[in-house]
Automatic annotation (TrEMBL):
The chain crosses the membrane at residues 150-176, 188-205. The keyword Membrane applies. This is Endonuclease/exonuclease/phosphatase domain-containing protein. Keywords: Membrane, Transmembrane, Transmembrane helix. It comes from the Eukaryota. InterPro entries: Endo/exonu/phosph_ase_sf.
Amino acid sequence: MSFVQWNCRSLNNKKIWLHQPPFSTANFWIFQETFLKADDNLSHPNKKFFRTHRSNRLGGGLLIGIPKNISGRVIYSIENDPNLEVMAVEIQSKNLNFIIINIYAPHGFNIASIKRFLDSLSVPTFIFGDFNLHHPLWGEVHSHRSVKALLIGLTIPNFPCLTPLLQLVFLILILHRSLTYLCARLRFIMKLIVMFLTVLLKAIISPS
């Protein structure tokens, strides 16, 4: 199972890329800023698409592409908020049941805005997005004020779907407008896991 995530900054003039690797070899596509309108046609022989569109201004737009031989349905979306776009698709096949969440936050992501929805999830969940957050952990000089809330908000005690330890949530923070592969982010993900565990241990050792 493979994913490719991309802030494409307009998909209209890049559709031909979708027939080349890594897109042609990935099972799932997660795109931000497609700039597509509701009546724009987009088709692919091996994919079916779930999309959101801005109806009140230009730009934005989310897309999740999944293989045609599996089922999917949109279970949550935010489309016309100027500060946040979200789409969640539940995937179901013979042996798989999981959720893909696609997020675009042009001015920085605040996890509180969708915390109630995240708390309601009870199946494995993959979170992708362009969060426009900055932190030294991923090579930035400055730290965005929402990063701490995001990291603490996704620790085990605050994420009910993780408390049975039977569910697995991957947080993929894509903070730049660039094509990113999961394998290229393994070192970053490990750092993130260590940071989560550090916050968790501090909470256990020194409860407030």
